Amino acid sequence: MREKISNILVLLLLFLLSIFFDVDDKSEPVEIYKPKSKLDKEYDLRVPKEGKAQNLANMKYAKIQPLHTLGEDIRNGYSISSRDTPEYAGVKPSTHNKMYFVNGYLNGFVPHNVDNIWTILGYVQTRLKYQLDEKGYSDRAEVWQTSKESYIRLRGDCEDHAILLADWLIGLGYDARVVSGTVNIRGETGGHAWVILYTNGKEYLLEATQKSKWNQLPLASKFPNYFPKYMFNRKNFWINVGSKLTTKYSGKQWKKSGKFVPYNPYYKD
Contact at 8 Å (CB) between 149 and 139? Predict the structure, then answer.
């Protein structure tokens, strides 16, 4: 009899506790990353990294819109912004006609483990042939290649050259970033991409599409005809909030506005 009464009291206590702790939580749900049970440690470097972009102003995440939902005017790429930040991510189409965040094209490809900037720059300058996307991809206006795709194809336009050069340098431990903006050459201004290298306290502008060799690394301050809009590496996204005429790639005029978070944790960063 005592045992029966004891069991009833336990059940009653549990019932009262469930009522007490049943509180209506009206707070916003917190996104928790749950890794898949099986993830490939080996991944195809010809495919950009998939992931999401984080707005560092409000810490919210953005995902890429499915291609079939995009209008024709933004199928060549688009930027993501918010009320807090003018721009914190860029999205561009790949060779297999799928959209990826720009950081995803820097996916950890290092062709040769040579710790020599001149060797890397010389290879990209002399081995890669400049080719417009319209010619290489059946009249598609904009196509981005990963660093390995450019290394295999040995051709591409300005961002393809820059991505291979930056990814290679990053893989060897250098602080390198791909910069997107415009350039004025002989009075004509057009869209362009180049690489900024930070080393020994200085900023160097590396123009991988220039096929002639340099005698020394050119300082970024020597290129007033380059007008940067944004820049990125494997993890982060910066936007120029100052003058477009700047020749500086650090300081208050550059705002780190976004962060790229790959879905696969085995990707090199």
Answer: no
Instruction: List own/partner pairs for 60-69 with CB under 8 A and 24 or more apart.
Output: 61/31, 61/261, 62/88, 62/89, 64/91, 64/99, 64/100, 64/101, 65/99, 67/93, 67/97, 67/98, 67/99
Task: Give the Cα separation of 250 and 203 in Å (integer).
Answer: 9
Quick one: how far is CA 25 from the chain centroid?
36
pLDDT tens string 186-197: 999 999 999 999
Q: Is the dihedral of CA 128, 115, 146, 79 positive or negative?
A: negative
108: left (phi over 0), alpha (psi -120 to 50) or beta: left
Radius of gyration of the chain (CA): 24
Give pLDDT tens digits for 58-93. Answer: 999 999 987 777 777 777 899 999 988 889 999 999
Distance CA 83, CA 98 (A): 27
Going edge to edge, which strands form the sheet with 89-93? Answer: 78-80, 89-93, 99-101
Q: Count CB neighbours of 230 within 10 A.
A: 24
What is the reported pTM? 0.82
Domain extent listing, the chain: 106-262
Question: What burial letters (b/e) apply to 60-94, b meaning 16+ CB within 10 Å?
Answer: eebebeeeeebeeeeeebbbbbeeebebbbbbbbb
Q: What is the dihedral angle through the alpha carbons of 105, 203, 57, 87, rounded to the nearest 10 degrees?
A: -60
Written as six digits, the tokens of 90 are 């860029």
Q: Which two tokens stand for residue 262?
A: 């790959």
Residue 132: closest CA among 160, 99, 105? 160
For the 106-262 domain, the top CATH level (class) is alpha beta
